[in-house]
From TrEMBL:
It comes from Methylobacterium aquaticum. PANTHER family: ARYL-ALCOHOL OXIDASE VANILLYL-ALCOHOL OXIDASE (AFU_ORTHOLOGUE AFUA_3G09500)-RELATED, D-LACTATE DEHYDROGENASE. One of its GO terms (biological process) is lactate catabolic process. Pfam families: FAD_binding_4. It comes from the Bacteria. This is FAD-binding PCMH-type domain-containing protein. InterPro entries: Cytok_DH_C_sf, FAD-bd_PCMH, FAD-bd_PCMH-like_sf, FAD-bd_PCMH_sub1, FAD-bd_PCMH_sub2, FAD-linked_Oxase-like_C, Oxid_FAD_bind_N, Vanillyl_alc_oxidase_C-sub2. Coiled coil: none annotated. The lineage of its organism: Bacteria, Pseudomonadati, Pseudomonadota, Alphaproteobacteria, Hyphomicrobiales. GO terms for molecular function: D-lactate dehydrogenase (cytochrome) activity; D-lactate dehydrogenase (NAD+) activity; FAD binding. PROSITE patterns: FAD_PCMH. Keywords: FAD, Flavoprotein. Residues 32-212 form the FAD-binding PCMH-type domain.
Length: 779
């Protein structure tokens, strides 16, 4: 092995831990508290096999990387704290170059620059792959992470022909054709299993090369609005769907162009069409077609002079954006990790649909601007069916607050995508991973089953691509819902308007931040209050206000809208899910003040003292701001009731003004809050266990199951799998406890004659969707 001082795999405590070595390996361009415990660099397949066997023996997690230049996505930072970095940079052989099939086999240490030099030495018949990152980054690493290429290699993973993969048991397997014809042989095609996953370590990859076209030309035009952007996306779809391999389309906005050290285009968007040709006449025809396409949608059409094909070698020009937030220019030897550049990429996979692309890019711009980032965006067309939206968050890790802003912005963008059903293209090693699998429970179950079969000890990059541990059977656990009701839909819109009115009273700069955050929360829901299950607010329409009391309905609605908003906002400000910007804190203060005014006025109207609602507010603040550590499940559920105290103020006043039982209506909200707490914790078992949270699920566990939960919280890579095998007995009891709270709430509603509210609660039974058989470990 190549690192100095290596004696492992003989003794895990002799791993190289030189301060400089580990410091370099732990550098990254984004905030993360995850650290490597050591580094090894096997120089052969046999040395890697010894590392794998030692990791199984000693229960250590490994984090394999190629050259480690995964800048903006986590660099060499592990997904699991305390993992051992396995650098594959020494495996840099270029083999089996085949001019007939146009393929070459490369190791994970082969860089884009090295492959370009190799192909140039063979006459340049085939164009080397390019990327917007460093020429020193790995070709195999880019493919394995489903990275983005340039020019004729836009979809790098699409050029994969075959793989040689080592699994956790040390077995070496060829997946796909590694020699001869490039069509996969009869039988299942397993190549995709080893892309963006952690089922094995890629030691060699056979890739398909693109022929070098004789000539190239670029056509560009400015797109003056989101409408023009939508029109160009629509117009380019048919041309790309034809499948012309010598046409590429890329769109960048003004902020992205400036970040790349280019001149501002003077318009919101700039579209490029690059065409290649067999000769001057063929190229001229293609360029005219591209110019007609851009001329119909944009302005300032520019047709560049033809040149001799794409650049023959990679360059560092794409790295300028990494240094956009630094006070100095990019050096001649760029290394964003070393130079503490702030770089965090967020990628979204979109349909090639103009209206959808314009809508989501506008939402991205709003959220990024609200977090203080120039909204640097690019759109990379694939085949007329899909587009990659790439957002760059560029800052300076030496500037206080930049890390926190970038993390909060990325979380808001991912929340927007999740709520709108937009798949994430790539995740970073500093973020929760595997959530994209959760969009399809069938994929998640199968991926985890394969992980258990190929890596039962969870030593290979636990958490990368495939989340550690199987899911709870029946997820996503949720509540049923009342049927569509125009009255309730209108009520939700009115509550949203009440909240919008509060936001409108903020200074415009703060209001933009607040609107962006609220939009990210609402996501696919028509309004912010679509986030809440209907029994938390339907009493406003279900419990009548007779006679003169009806005039208080708007104030009661506004009061409850404010308390529901504060309940979510405070919770997420307190636990770090929501970055505490000035706008969000100020909005919270305004909401609290408005809530107090409404509660006081309604208490006077009902002839009640202020003490009850003030006591409820105080109980809520203590429960959210300084909660005691619950000793058992009953204590945790009692805490959930106190957390819901703020949301019982409006129901209590509503009932008092209606001449009804105030305590009874408030109790219904508390009971539903208890059920919601249990269901929410059941939905988040894996995340809560990995974070070491004492959720209601943890408090329901005893013995070995409780021990497995606690081990997961301190980073044991095998603990989640052990926990899954022991969860079974606790789950039915928790589901029954949640349903019992719902039944109690419904019984109160029925006893007081609130039939419509009782019907809402009956329709909200805990639902465990039929998503096929549970994982064997949970049977």
């Amino acid at each position: 092995m190549t690192w100095p001082g290596d004696t492992w795999p003989g003794d895990p405590f002799d791993l190289p831990r030189e301060a400089a070595l580990l410091a370099a390996a732990n550098r990254t361009t984004l905030a993360s508290d995850r650290r490597l415990a050591g580094v090894v660099a096997p120089g052969s397949a046999e040395e890697l096999r010894a590392v794998l066997r030692a990791a199984v023996r000693d229960g250590l997690a490994l984090h394999p990387v190629s050259t480690g230049r995964n800048w903006g996505y986590g660099s060499r930072r592990p997904h699991r704290n305390g993992a051992i970095l396995v650098s594959l940079a020494a495996l840099d052989a270029i083999e089996d170059y085949d001019e007939v099939t146009g393929t070459v086999v490369v190791g994970p240490g082969v860089t884009f620059a090295a492959l370009a030099a190799f192909l140039a030495s063979r006459g340049g018949r085939f164009q080397p792959p390019r990327t917007g990152s460093s020429p020193g980054s790995s070709v195999v690493g880019n493919i394995a992470e489903r990275g983005i290429g340039k020019d004729l290699y836009e979809d790098m993973a699409g050029h994969l022909v075959g793989l040689a993969v080592m699994t956790a048991d040390g077995g070496l397997h060829e997946v796909g054709p590694m020699r001869g014809p490039i069509l996969p042989p009869a039988g299942p095609d397993l190549r995709g299993l080893f892309v963006q996953g952690n089922l094995g370590i890629v030691l060699r990859a056979r890739i398909r090369l693109a022929l070098t076209p004789p000539v190239r030309q670029v056509v560009a035009a400015a797109l003056p609005s989101h409408g023009a952007l939508a029109a160009f996306v629509e117009a380019s779809r048919a041309a790309l769907q034809i499948g012309d391999p010598w046409l590429r389309v890329e769109i960048v906005n003004a902020a992205r162009a400036v970040a790349q050290d280019e001149e501002s285009p003077g318009a919101p968007w700039l579209a490029y069409a690059t065409v290649w040709g067999k000769g001057p006449e063929d190229l001229a025809l293609r360029a005219r077609t591209a110019a007609n396409l851009l001329g119909r949608c944009g302005t300032g059409l520019e047709v560049c002079a033809p040149d001799d094909g794409p650049p023959a070698a990679p360059s560092t020009t794409g790295l300028h954006s990494a240094y956009h937030g630094k006070p100095f220019a990019m050096p001649d030897d760029p290394d964003p990790d070393r130079d503490r550049c702030g770089v965090l990429w967020v990628t979204a996979n979109l349909r090639h649909h103009g209206g959808e692309v314009a809508g989501i890019t506008e939402a991205f711009e709003t959220i990024m601007s609200a977090h203080g980032f120039a909204p640097a965006l690019s759109l990379r067309a694939i085949d007329g069916r899909s587009l990659r939206l790439v957002a760059g968050l560029f800052g300076d890790r030496d500037r206080p607050g930049d890390d926190a802003r970038a993390t909060a912005c990325a979380e808001a963008l991912h929340a927007l995508m999740a709520r709108n059903g937009i798949p994430v293209g790539r995740r970073t090693s500093a973020q929760e991973v595997g959530q994209d699998l959760d969009q399809n429970p069938g994929d998640a179950r199968l991926a985890r089953a394969l992980k258990r079969a190929l890596d039962p000890d969870e030593i290979l990059a636990p958490g990368r691509g495939i989340p550690a541990g199987p899911p709870l059977p029946g997820l996503p656990l949720t509540f049923g819902g009342p049927p569509d009701d125009p009255v309730l839909d209108d009520l939700a819109r009115q509550m949203a308007a009440d909240l919008d009115g509060l936001v409108a009273g903020l200074p415009e700069g703060l209001a933009r931040d607040a609107r962006a955050a609220l939009a990210a929360y609402a996501g696919k829901h028509p309004t912010f209050f679509g986030l809440y299950y209907r029994p938390t607010w339907s009493f406003l329409a279900r419990v009548a206000l007779p006679g003169p009391a009806a005039r208080h309905r708007p104030r009661l609605r506004r009061l409850h809208a404010l308390t529901l908003f504060l309940h979510l906002w405070d919770d997420h400000l307190a636990d770090g899910q929501l970055a505490p910007t000035l706008g969000r804190i100020h909005l919270r203060s305004c909401a609290w003040s408005a809530m107090e005014d409404e509660a006081a006025a309604l208490s006077r109207a009902a002839g009640l003292p202020d003490a009850p609602w003030r006591d409820a507010a105080a109980a809520y603040l203590e429960a959210v701001g300084a909660p005691p550590e619950p000793a058992d499940l009953d204590a945790a559920l009692a805490l959930a009731r106190r957390e819901a105290a703020l949301c019982t103020i409006a129901p209590g006043l509503h009932a008092a003004l209606a001449g009804e039982d105030a305590a009874a209506l408030a109790r219904i909200i508390e009971d539903f809050a208890v059920a919601w707490r249990i269901v929410d914790d059941l939905q988040d078992i894996g995340r809560d266990a990995a974070a070491g949270r004492r959720s209601t699920v943890r408090l329901a566990l005893t013995g070995a199951a409780a021990g497995a939960w606690d081990a997961a919280g301190v980073g044991d890579p095998r603990a989640l799998a052990a926990l899954a095998a022991r969860l079974g007995p606790a789950v039915p009891g928790l589901v029954a406890r949640a349903q019992a709270a719902l039944d109690a709430a419904r019984a109160v509603a029925q006893a007081h004659g609130w039939r419509d509210l009782a019907a809402d609660l009956a329709a909200s039974r805990v639902v465990i969707p039929d998503v096929a058989a549970p994982d064997p470990a949970l049977r």
